[in-house]
């Protein structure tokens, strides 16, 4: 049995974290935790007890347990970051997860409290900062850096020698060209193509796909039987 783990959160991200840590790590999830106002009536989640975050040290030893904050990009990652810092201030060590099905080159530098799912490719000399989430299927190019507190969704391409600034969010299928620096606090929307450096606190989005005037069945000349 591995190190004991407490997961902060009760969302679908917490469910995923529970699955990954349980089936693809040496951690043993012993409990969940959230702020006391959000404790469920039955006091359980995924078959584990849920304890108030404010009283975590009354229930578990900092020397025996690690904490992982399973939270998304709310408030441009600030909420997750605050909870990570609060857990550290209590004295808990932070857990990380790197999928056994991710390709991470040996000289890649990983920060603390990272969550890297399956099918991520992280090439040589890349750097992943603290408190970074890489959802499934991304490409992080050689010598690129994802700075602290970022959230990268799925099938994002960060080309070589790029820098992704602190607290940024990259949406599904976004692409960043070689040698581009994305400013901190950026929101790069789904399918966006970033080919030049971006300023701080920028939002890039693409147009939504429009509904055609002709229906799918009419386009394919479907005849009712």
User: What class, by secondary structure content?
Assistant: alpha/beta
The CATH homologous superfamily of the largest domain is termed Hexapeptide repeat proteins
CATH topology of the largest domain: UDP N-Acetylglucosamine Acyltransferase, domain 1
Strand neighbour order, sheet with most strands: 7-10-13-16-19-22-24
Instruction: Report the end-to-end length measured between terminal Cα atoms.
Output: 60 Å
Q: How large is the share of residues in beta strands?
A: 25-35%
Count of discrete alpha- or pi-helical segments spanning 4 or more residues: 4
- What series of H and E elements makes up the topology? EHEEEHEHEEEEEEEEEEEEEEEEEEEH
**Main sheet overview:** 7 strands, parallel
Mean pLDDT: 97
The number of E-state strands comes to 24
Q: So what's the oligomer here?
A: single chain
| Radius of gyration (Å) | 20 Å
Low-confidence stretches: none
Topology at a glance:
Elements: E1 4-8, H1 12-23, E2 28-34, E3 44-45, E4 48-52, H2 56-59, E5 65-69, H3 78-90, E6 93-94, E7 97-98, E8 103-104, E9 109-110, E10 115-116, E11 121-122, E12 127-128, E13 133-134, E14 139-140, E15 145-146, E16 151-152, E17 157-158, E18 163-164, E19 169-170, E20 175-176, E21 181-182, E22 187-188, E23 193-194, E24 203-204, H4 216-219
Parallel strand pairs: 1-2, 1-5, 2-4, 5-6, 7-10, 8-11, 9-12, 10-13, 11-14, 12-15, 13-16, 14-17, 15-18, 16-19, 17-20, 18-21, 19-22, 20-23, 22-24
Antiparallel strand pairs: 3-4
């Amino acid at each position: 049995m591995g190190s004991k783990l407490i997961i902060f959160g009760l969302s679908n991200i917490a469910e995923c974290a529970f699955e990954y840590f349980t089936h693809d790590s040496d951690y043993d999830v012993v409990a969940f935790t959230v702020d006391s106002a959000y404790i469920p009536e039955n006091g359980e989640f995924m078959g584990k007890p849920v304890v108030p975050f404010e009283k975590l040290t009354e229930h578990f030893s900092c020397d025996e347990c690690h904490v992982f904050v399973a939270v998304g990009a709310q408030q441009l990652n600030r909420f997750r970051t605050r909870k990570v810092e609060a857990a550290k201030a209590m004295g808990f060590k932070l857990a990380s997860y790197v999928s056994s099905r991710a390709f991470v080159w040996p000289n890649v530098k990983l920060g603390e409290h990272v969550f890297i799912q399956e099918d991520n490719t992280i090439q040589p000399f890349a750097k992943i900062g603290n408190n970074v989430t890489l959802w499934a299927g991304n490409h992080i190019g050689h010598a690129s850096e994802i700075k602290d507190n970022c959230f990268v969704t799925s099938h994002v391409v960060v080309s070589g020698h790029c820098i992704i600034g602190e607290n940024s969010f990259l949406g599904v299928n976004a692409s960043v060209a070689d040698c581009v620096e994305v400013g901190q606090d950026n929101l790069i929307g789904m399918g966006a193509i970033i080919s030049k450096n971006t300023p701080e606190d920028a939002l890039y989005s693409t147009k939504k796909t429009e509904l055609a005037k002709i229906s799918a069945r009419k386009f394919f000349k479907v005849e009712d039987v």
